[in-house]
Amino acid sequence: MFKSIIAKKIGMTQVFDDKGNLIPVTVVEAGPCIITDIKTKEKDGYNALQLSFQNVDEKKLNKAQLGIFKKNNISPKQILREFRVDDISSFSIGQEIKADIFKSGDYVDVSAITKGKGFAGVIKRHHFGMQPTTHGQSDRTRARGSSGGQGPQKVLKGMRMAGHLGVKYVTIQKLLVVNINPENNIMLIRGAVPSVNSGTLLINNTLKKIPIIQEVKTKSKKK
Q: Which of 51, 65, 96, 121 would bridge 61 by S-S if both were Cys, CB 3.0 to 4.6 A apart?
């Protein structure tokens, strides 16, 4: 079954489960997405669905982008993404994909671009420890220290240093779907997901193994 959708991160909050435990969740607006194109193995070499998300003014799109929607009589959308599928026979252009393809208890993989944090030092970027703050070392508290030694006499490639932090495409795997509100296309996903608030997320059914919870039956002792 196809379980992939484009979503928008709204923010984080907390909810209580049936046992009264506090669960941190990310609120996500998942869809509705419109299928704008279907890739076939015979024509394109692979099977995939092109989904579109979020309405946008025509003036913000160029002619090539606008032509995709006008050709299929679909209102212009801001985001287009492809998702691979095994079988495309049950899909058609213009079909709507909503958040109800998921249900509570599902596990998903969430992909997005992380929040950009500008130029950062090694303590913030690589979690280095601080140097002594006394005995004349106060001006070197957050410095990374030596870059090399007597051996190569050069800085080796891949050395962890200060630099640009964030703005990387990452995937957080096996996150639990706590709740679904299909009327408003809202999903509550346990824990944090990458991206800034109102950022774009790609949500897929998890690739990892889902744990099977077995019910343990207890036998009553006979007196």
A: 65
